Every structure is written in structure tokens, then in C-alpha cells.
């Protein structure tokens, strides 16, 4: 019997250190890394270390824009599902999902036009979770403040 928590192919996640209490996430075990949509990002130096600031709109939740900042963990080339390579900034932050909190690595990307502002790759879910691709939102949905128009 596995003690891993079962996730659906999409879930409501939180990134509390970034001020995101709820964000729609697609769980994608075919992707190695996780990605977070950002509308804009900028670099700066704090205490001699590289940091990144960014703005994002977490979705149609009526929450508006969120501005966050984090130390730059790494910068690497990433190949997206369309085969396009780009250099991306990676940060480390706490993911809260299904009652579990763990630090994960996330790259900041332009996911405009994608249905999910966050993609959780296999390195974020390995060890604690298993995924049932036939199910979704097993750990709660994000309630919209305003209905879709």
C-alpha cells in the first residue's frame, strides 16, 4: 500500500511565500521542471545576491495582479512542449498542495494563452504524490469571485 497522496491531472495549489493563496496548476509528469506564468519580470541585486521581481495575474479569480520577489536560484535553458528553447530564471519556494508543504524549484515563464498559469513537473511531485490522470481537483477547487462572462 502506497502512502503517497493521489493528485488529479489538475489541482489548486498555493505558493504562500509568493503571496499566492490559490492558483490553478496542471500536474504534468512528462515535464521535468515546474513553471509559473509571469506577466513581467526584472532583476536586481540585494545584499550582493541576484534576485528577480515579477508580476503575475493568477487567473480569473478577481484577485488582480500579484507582485512577488525571490532570490535567483539558477538560470537554465528549458525546452518547451513545442520544442522551443529559452533561457529561464529558476527560483525555489514552498508549494502547498493537498495538505503537504515542500520546497520546489520553479522557472518563470510566459504561459500567456495556456489554460493553467502553473505547471507542476515531476520533480515537484516525486516522492510525496502519485497522479491519477483520469481525475481532477481531488483536493478542492478554486472558487471564482465572479462568473465567467
From TrEMBL:
SUPFAM superfamilies: Acid proteases. One of its GO terms (biological process) is proteolysis. GO terms for molecular function: peptidase activity. Keywords: Hydrolase, Protease. Residues 6-139 form the Retropepsin-like aspartic endopeptidase domain. Pfam families: Zn_protease (PF05618). The keyword Hydrolase applies. Gene3D superfamilies: Acid Proteases. InterPro entries: Asp_endopeptidase, Peptidase_aspartic_dom_sf. PANTHER family: ATP-DEPENDENT ZINC PROTEASE DOMAIN-CONTAINING PROTEIN-RELATED (PTHR38037:SF1), ZN_PROTEASE DOMAIN-CONTAINING PROTEIN (PTHR38037). This is ATP-dependent zinc protease family protein. It comes from Lysobacter antibioticus. The lineage of its organism: Bacteria, Pseudomonadati, Pseudomonadota, Gammaproteobacteria, Lysobacterales.
